């Protein structure tokens, strides 16, 4: 990318889909990574965070800077910002649709659009089931624009014994997509001899 700093700068968008447990696992994983993490959360994201984890955004670990959802003057609104990548976790179908349609109705949408236009990594952790045809078409549109669709689906070949371990396996996959090295990350043959 040609950025001057060695530390990766990642933008996290948090929307109002279920799955805040995975946000927490991802952020805990980032503790050991050499990243600077900025974030923006939607109003419904705050509601779901409170409902599922009974916390406010300020209680989430490792985030060094928060942006307001309606602040279109914030750094992530501009292609001159120096983010290496953006991940939206969890990503609602409404956010997916806005990104697929090129709409910028809030800072998460605008930052995703900027990420795509600058040819940086955009990872959408979509969270819905089942998918309808519109969801699938929107995923294909974002994929065709250069985004990565990474549904919130933990792997089970590492034999997770708890929900926390399953969420950790998904956090590792996200880190892989963002080109972030995680020191204790386990892989396929690590437990199968």
UniProtKB/TrEMBL annotation:
Entry's EC annotation: 2.5.1.129
Broad class of enzyme this protein falls into: transferase
Domain Flavoprotein as annotated: residue spans: 9-166
Flavoprotein in keyword set: yes
Any one Gene Ontology molecular-function term assigned to this protein's record: flavin prenyltransferase activity
Transferase recorded as keyword: yes
Binding site for FMN: 16-18, 42, 92-95, 127
Record family assignment: Belongs to the UbiX/PAD1 family.
Name the record gives this protein: Flavin prenyltransferase UbiX
Organism: Desulfomarina profundi
Upper lineage: Bacteria, Pseudomonadati, Thermodesulfobacteriota, Desulfobulbia, Desulfobulbales
């Amino acid at each position: 990318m040609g950025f001057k700093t060695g530390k990766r700068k990642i933008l996290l968008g948090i929307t109002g889909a279920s799955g805040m447990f995975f946000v927490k696992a991802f952020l805990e994983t980032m503790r050991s990574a050499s990243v600077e993490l900025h974030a923006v959360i939607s109003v419904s994201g705050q509601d779901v965070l409170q409902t599922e984890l009974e916390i406010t955004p300020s209680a989430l670990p490792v985030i060094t800077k928060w942006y307001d959802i309606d602040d279109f003057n914030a750094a992530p609104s501009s292609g001159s910002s120096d983010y290496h990548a953006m991940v939206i976790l969890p990503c609602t179908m409404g956010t997916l649709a806005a990104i697929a349609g090129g709409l910028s109705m809030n800072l998460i949408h605008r930052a995703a659009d900027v990420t795509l236009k600058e040819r940086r990594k955009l990872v959408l952790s979509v969270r819905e089931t089942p998918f309808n045809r519109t969801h699938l078409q929107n995923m294909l549109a974002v994929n065709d624009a250069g985004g990565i669709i990474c549904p919130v689906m933990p792997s089970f070949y590492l034999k997770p014994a708890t929900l926390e371990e399953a969420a950790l396996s998904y956090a590792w996959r996200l880190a892989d997509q963002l080109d972030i090295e995680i020191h204790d990350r386990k892989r396929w043959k690590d437990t199968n001899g």
